Protein: Olfactory receptor
Amino acid sequence: MEAVNQSMVSEFTILGLCNSWELQAFLLVMFTFLYLITILGNIFIVLLIVTDLRLHYPMYFLLANLSFIDFFLSSVTTPKMITDFLKENKTISFGGCMCQIFFGHFLGGGEMVLLVSMAYDRYVAICKPLHYTSIMNRQMCIGLVMTSWIIGFVHSISQLAMIIKLPFCGPRELDSFFCDIPLVIKLACTDTYIQEMLINADSGVLATICFILLLVSYSFILFTVCLHSKDGVSKALSTCTAHITVVVLFFGPCIFIYLWPLSITWVDKFLAVFYAVITPLLNPAIYTLRNKEIKNAIKRLQC
Structure:
């Protein structure tokens, strides 16, 4: 009975990004602006691809799903962070904390797999152009998207299952602006070595497999184009720069947050902000600025 009572935590205290009210006021305005731009930008891309018949191709179908995920991913932590800037005592309920963990890993894991799907689409388009329409058909596109959602869900539920039953009876302060497993698991009043190893292995395996598949896909693309064209490298980089940039921006913070052995608080907070706030904003911006068809579709709207 005592162990059960120990685990009945009603809320956690969030320390946030800083203690200065002046700085918090500045961050409130800045992050509110960035969040609105992120939401509007991702919704705009989804609606543009859905309504413009010239963009009804596999690459843009996957891009619309990426923006759809980023729309929700940015909403997992950012609204809570913004409202907390207005509060002196920042808290989050135990259930709310678990929800942030679940949806953060659900959407993050799904986005990893979706980025692999987008790389596979570019591989087929460049390396097997004559078979592109037969390989990347409607069923394949839907299957790739469904696979990303399923893997994201399985990854998230497995992570949550390893932490939700832990007893929490000691300090309840999270030195961040949101709940995440590396921070929450430190507050458990029991030995969590096994859980930490399993959680790191789960996240590490998913991230490593996705990253290797991405490297293999883009290596084949560069190799294939170089064989068939003197200007192959520049053409391949021009085609895939947007994809590669998004991959680096997405996987970079993940590797440092979940796989880097050293923990430096201000670095972790910066990377967490970058991952939760900046990355969902950069994805639509990068694809919009780098993609000729998207820019032409925007021009058609203006006419």
About this structure: The CA atoms of residues 91 and 271 lie 22 Å apart.
